[in-house]
Amino acid sequence: MPLMRLDKLLSQLGLATRSESRAICMSGRVRVNGSPPRTYSEKVNTDLDSITLDGKTLIYKQTRVFMMNKPEGVVSARTDGRDLTALDIMDETCRRLGLFPAGRLDKRTTGLLLMTNDGDLTHNIIMPSSGIVKKYSAKLLSPLPINAERLFAEGIVLSDGTRFKPALAEAADSTRMNVYVSVTEGKYHQVRRMLKSVGSPVADLKRLSIGGLVLDPALSPGEYRELDEQEISRIFEK
Fold it and tell me: 8-17, 65-74, 115-124: which range is least confident on average?
């Protein structure tokens, strides 16, 4: 790991702004290998050096990924001129980490949303060529037609010529008013448009999983938590 300035380390951990970090470094609250730093610009090795703040060991992770149960009415963006964003509902520490959505859910859709600071990770998640399956549950306004499973498996084609890759539609119960849909793309309002095209408009839509990563049932709408490395790896399970 390359050397990093001490004040930059504190700010990248979301503990303070860069200017606040400088003051904290020189306040006596920080120790590097047991000793106070000589200057806030002191270089530290985040792999080898022991760095503490108020006696608590600081662990630097370059990639940060959070799982959020996105509530309805929140947009999947860092900033928005009109609506509350996913970043807006995170705490101040998280807002300092440079997080952004790894993929999107529309304003009305709820469920699993990933927030990260890693652009490469995001690219690997959202690219259709990655083949990562996103699973949704949908409550419908009209029952899913009997031939819908076949149409989804063949690849839905809309009247405007828009083509979707083959997907999986499964009735969740005998009423066929509740369904599961699994897709490997992330086109605009894709699941809603696919279901509407077969005569079953969506009343409610929720994302349940991305790859092998399932939304934590302990998270209420608007709640979130950080993922560990093992959980991040589940995203890419097929």
Answer: 8-17
Q: Is 49 inside a domain boundary?
A: yes
Q: Catalytic: 106?
A: yes
In 52-209, where does DSSP find H-type helix?
A: 92-95, 119-126, 148-154, 190-197
Whether residues 159 and 110 share a domain: the answer is no
In this structure, what token pair is assigned to residue 144?
Answer: 């899913």
Residues 199, 163 share a domain? yes
The string of DSSP codes covering 13-31 is TTSS-HHHHHHHHTTT-EE
The two structure tokens encoding residue 27:
């306040």
pTM of the model: 0.82
Catalytic residue (one of 49, 106, 204, 216): 106
pLDDT digits (tens, 9 = 90+) for 74-83: 999 888 889 9
Eight-class DSSP state of 129: G
Q: Is residue 158 part of a domain?
A: yes
pLDDT in tens, 85-98: 999 999 998 998 99
